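A common beginner's mistake is to predict each chain separately and then try to dock the pieces by hand. The better habit, illustrated here, is to supply every component at once so that their relative placement is modeled jointly.
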Amino acid sequence: MNSQQSSIQGQLRRFEALCRDQGLPVTVQRRTVLETVLGRDDHPTADQIYEDVVARVAGISRTTVYRVLDMLVRFGMITKACHPGAMARFDGNTERHHHLVCLRCDRVIDLVDERLDALELPDTGHLDFEITDLRVQLYGVCANCRNEATASKPVTDETGAVLNPKKREKN
Amino acid sequence: MNSQQSSIQGQLRRFEALCRDQGLPVTVQRRTVLETVLGRDDHPTADQIYEDVVARVAGISRTTVYRVLDMLVRFGMITKACHPGAMARFDGNTERHHHLVCLRCDRVIDLVDERLDALELPDTGHLDFEITDLRVQLYGVCANCRNEATASKPVTDETGAVLNPKKREKN
DNA sequence: CTACCAGATGCAATAATATTTCATCTGGTA
DNA sequence: TACCAGATGAAATATTATTGCATCTGGTAG
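With all components supplied together, the output reads:
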């Protein structure tokens, strides 16, 4: 998609500016990890990102991917997604949006809904908590899982992507 | 708290009934794990639950705690909490409620808000997703972290509870 | 009360995910 | 081109989670 592409370019420039501000180098690895996360519309694990990135930067190490992801979160370029399951998940979409969470296969699907976006932030003064953003998690069962009531993990979606991957290659 | 106590008793009876329905035995381990999760008002990791449970059932294994937690989630007695960070978290509160998520220390605080509870479920017919429940995640910075801008992990709360524990004993 | 068995448990091994250490390399600059 | 702060890669280690199997237990029938 072209608007998607140009948005990624904009984000990259924003990232480079942030690095310059802090005197930190913009490396091939950092650029590639960021591009990769922004280029996905799901909520990949660190390992899924590694798989994508290693195809573009031969020899990049898993360690670096973990480190860069952590850095990008601190910079606010991406977020950690709240996700059932044990692995950390990342989300390149920092716009306000919401999540459909399948209780059967743990899949998380993005949802854009203006009414939810317009939600007024509740008053949490008594808890002394400063709210900056809000997302709604909608729990239920996705089409896949409803169709095959007997489905057990692991599950793949219609594109063949593994939704709850279990194995990875050697380090 | 007494109402809390009796609610836990009720949940235990509900669990026993579920087991009987399915011909599954109600073991000391299962009862204790369930009691322990229900008795907490935070979102413990499997290991935190293990620590609590082992004090009451000497010799219980970590493996069993993992297995029981998984079973309780399948039975709907507890839920997996969406939580930033790498470890699976559990939530004994199955009533509709919402979460304040601190972006600094990853702490998750429960929030009850009638206006949020009353949210109408959005129409997701076009996505073929069947919604059964909804929770709102409110992102921000908790009082602790706002007070000590220099705080770095690990962090403990005012009660001394470790919010992002790092170590555990031998297996 | 005892025997019985499906299923649960504990233990040890293993897998999967994540972090640390440190020698080496690179981006950015003079 | 040389320099250096900081990034990277590799290996070791730590942490979290699962699996296989021998043994034990809850629930029940006799």
